[in-house]
Amino acid sequence: MNLLTEFTIFIISIFILSKASHTVIKSSVKMARITRLGELTIGFLFLSIATVIPETTISITSVISGNFGIAIGNILGSNITVLLLVAGLMGFIKSVNMTENTLVKLTHMLFLCSLILILLMLLNYLSKIIGLALLFLFILFNIYSVKSKITLGNIRMEEHFKLIPKLKISVSLLKTILYFFIGITVVLISAWFAVNSAANITIGLNIDQSFIGATILSICASLPELTVAIGAQKEGHIKLGLGNIIGSSLTRLTFVLGLVLLVSPFSININLFTVLVLFVLMSTILLWFFLGSFGRRKLDRMEGFILIVAYFVFLFVMSIYLIPI
Questions:
Q1: Yes or no: is domain 3-322 CATH 3.40.1280.10?
Q2: Alpha carbon distance 149, 131 (integer Å)
């Protein structure tokens, strides 16, 4: 097929992928609210995983088809997009003030993200063993979340062994679950077309695969998260907005990257993605700085503006390094 056909397939695929991803994430949020799981740690963990379904699908599809640059670029690029663009727009549109208790828990997660990135930079190749180690870290993240009682709602369950509230099966819940699985199915199909057309475009234009993975595909996969985050912020659900952004960022670096390394038939040379890793580290530390004791412990217009500018700097640097002149 010629480039025009590939571009057409790519544009249609990412449009459908974005819509389907939005359906998956909105359905996840609705299920957490209907079942009241948002009041429990299991709701926080469920949404952290559900939010990264688009990136997981794109990355694993890319690895299976041999497009490793798109896979790693999408994982790292999505974190950069969420931590800089999405969080920045949240702060710029409406001030995000964090309570001390919530703030400490979120900064701990950002700190762990930073440590993971530093460890990845010290390694030359990421193998299946590293993938297993990242999945183990994801389990530790879940244990920490449970012990810290991190939730998405204002109500906490004080009973020690009461993990799931009483659930009433309603038509609304069944409809939401149906939309959730339909959305996942469409995400899987559209991701396959998007990845394959993106790979052909990179070959035709002689562009580094990680550029498309870290920019166009990551923005597409993050748009639904942006919609949910801003919507939750306007409703006053700060934990659902900023909390899910940070939780999903850690999930990408552990769960998604771990799965990709396990599926990959070869070890991946992380040195090929140094620029991306450095920007993810910078994004994490920058948000950590704003929310921690060194900053104002909130996201306001000033912090939001800085994060957004940093994202456009990222796009500029990527265009210089990964697009041949």
A1: no
A2: 27
pLDDT 10s digits, 204-262: 878 888 888 888 888 887 877 777 777 766 666 666 677 778 888 888 899 999 999 99
- Domain edges within the chain: 3-322
CA distance 44 to 34: 14
The string of pLDDT tens digits covering residues 65-101 is: 888 888 899 999 999 999 999 889 888 887 777 655 6
Handedness of CA 227, 230, 234, 236 (dihedral sign): positive
The residue with tokens 């909130």 is: 298
Give me the half-sphere count of Cα atoms (radius 13 Å) on the Cβ side of residue 40. 19
From the list 154, 167, 152, the residue with the least C-alpha distance to 48 is: 152
Output the pTM of the full model: 0.82
Rounded Cα distance, 57 and 320, in Å: 28
Query: 269 has which bridge partners?
Result: 125
Residue 136 pLDDT exceeds 90: yes
| Residues 6+ positions from 93 with CB-CB distance below 8 Å | 230, 233, 304
Q: Helices in the chain by DSSP H: which ranges?
A: 3-34, 41-51, 53-64, 68-80, 87-93, 100-122, 128-148, 171-205, 209-214, 216-234, 238, 244-251, 257-263, 274-291, 301-322
97, containing H or E segment: strand 96-97
Angle CA(299)–CA(224)–CA(70) in degrees, nearest 5?
100
Q: What is the pLDDT of residue 150?
A: 65
